[in-house]
Amino acid sequence: MLIATLPAAHADELADLEANQRLLQRELDQLAQVPDAGTKAVPGAAVTGGSFPRSFLIPGTNTSLRVGGEVRLSVDYLLTGGGQNATGLPTNTLGSTGLLETTPLNARGQIVPGLGAVPADLNASRSHFVMFVPRESRIHIETRTPTEWGEAATVFEFDFNGGNIAADPAQVSNSLIPRLRHAYATLGPWLVGQTYPFQYDISTHNETLDFGSDAGYFGPSRQPQIRFTGQLPYVAGGAFAIELDQPDTDVQTAVGKFDADTTTVFPSTVGTKNPADGTVNPAVSPAPDLIGGVEFDRPWTHMRLAAVVRDLKLNDGRFINRQFIGYGGALMGWTKPGWFGLQRDVIDYGFGAGDGLGREINGSTDSGLDTNYGAFPITTATAAKSVIAKTVTGWGGWAGYSHYWLPNLHSNFTFGIRHSDYHSTLIGPAQDIVADKQLLTAHINLIYAPVPFADVGIEYFWGQRQVVANLTGNISAVLTRVRMRF
To answer: How many other β-carbons are positioned within 10 Å of the β-carbon of residue 345?
Structure first.
């Protein structure tokens, strides 16, 4: 009766209080089911170490937190190649996914069937310029929390490789755009978010000062994904993984390379006309990429086998609706040979191949399909019948050796190759001097670590690009890096 006589506002406050109490009690009950739920923070109490290296326990919780990263400055001196002022954007990405993939060709009037003489490109002769690059500096945040479902973890990592805010960065403050590298969460055997996919085994890649590293690595770097990982029964050190990755239909056409997420449109004079807004990009991604594989670990060796199935589609919304399956696999690993008592030396290796792989042989210019789409207007169903598309056979491989001269002084010797068998008659002569048929890379470096959390290095890089018309372009550079981690 007393509550009924209270003003309406007072009654609402009591109801909110009761709801909050019930919510608090529910949270307390949940925490009570978790071991080591943490203790109440005490002012002035020392922060204790967390459950993994370089982490600390957040007071009042059972969550371990690590905040780290690195400050890095790379100074690259290009001896040959690189193009028009290295595309105007100072970069330390020279090899795979980098300047090599579009470096100017050494054209000197060579004859290409259907195109004639290829004029000389003066940018191929430009050389000897320097770039200061801090863009790979990064911030890393990681948490781990025990639960009855297994350990829960989150990882965020950013660098500043997203580009420049200003059109002429060296003329102003050289402001850089942050870029998300990793953002994922794990709970027991499950992983969701963006990180290296299973088929991109970063542990088998040699250390290079070139951020682009070697050609031929299997798998695209850092993709949104859902992964389940488990232990192989009856196999010590064995594990398996099943994964769904963000898809991307990559296609080399007669007027350039297009992807399912490409915003560039075809020239209005070719392809299928879209009355709503000009032209149509026919690349469509109908289903996630499916990845599966196993790995085996011992203290002296590691080996991983991975297979990929891709669903690739061309659909112009009117005349063309064709679907293709890309597939392939790879073997990769590392081993410590232990010869001559050198216990820290490591041999890295890997090889992958398939049909319709495209980006699965790491790079930004490779494609899973090629087609003559774009060579002519498509305004009727009869014209659409002349469109031909095929999957592109591709393969790649890499090898490297890491040698320790002293405990704090080591070198890496690496080599990589990526090859794509485009159909020249489909993409046409204009793209025959654009599409990369083969990339070769090699690195040799010396890295010195005066203290465990800092190092300085110097490296020589060489790369060669060969297009479908068999013209080549080259890059050679001397790179240095100073890095301090925290």
So the answer is: 17
Quick one: which of 221, 248, 215 has its CA closest to 418? 215
Locus of tokens 């025959």: 432
Measure the CA–CA gap between 383 and 367, rounded to whole angstroms: 24
Using alpha carbons, list the distances in angstroms from residue 364 to 123, 148, 258, 367: 21, 42, 11, 9
Query: Taking the model in full, what pTM does it have?
Result: 0.86
| Cα atoms in the Cβ-side hemisphere of radius 13 Å centred on 283 | 24
Residue 403, token pair as written in the block = 């040698």
For 8, the enclosing helix (H) or strand (E) is helix 8-32
Residue type, 485: R
Q: Which residue, chain included where needed, has tokens 């992807």?
A: 259
Quick: pLDDT tens for 61-81.
999 999 999 999 999 999 998
CA distance 475 to 123: 12
CA distances from 137 to 21, 97, 140, 187 (A): 46, 19, 10, 29
The kind and range of the H/E element at 475 are: strand 472-485
Give the total residue count for the chain. Answer: 486
Say if residue 9's pLDDT is above 50: no
Residue 120 is given by DSSP the state P
- Given a contact cutoff of 8 angstroms between Cβ atoms, the answer to whether 217 and 205 are in contact is yes
Q: Which of 159, 223, 236, 172 is nearest to 194 (CA)?
A: 223
Closest CA to 373 of 271, 267, 278: 271
The rounded distance, in Å, linking the Cα atoms of 59 and 62 is 8
Identify the CA nearest to 347 among candidates 398, 300, 399. Answer: 399
pLDDT band at 295 (very low <50, low <70, confident <90, very high): very high
Going by C-alpha positions, the residue among 305, 304, 349, 357 that lies closest to residue 328 is 357
Rounded to a whole number of angstroms, the CA Rg of the chain reads 27
Strands (E), 25-164: 56-57, 64-80, 111-112, 116-117, 129-133, 138-145, 152-159
Cross-strand partners of 129 = 78
Coil, strand or helix: which one is 172? coil
CA distances from 481 to 176, 221, 245, 430, 476 (A): 19, 22, 33, 39, 17
Give the integer Cα–Cα distance in Å for 460 and 56. Answer: 40
The single residue listed with the structure tokens 């020589």 is: 460
- State residue 261's pLDDT score: 73
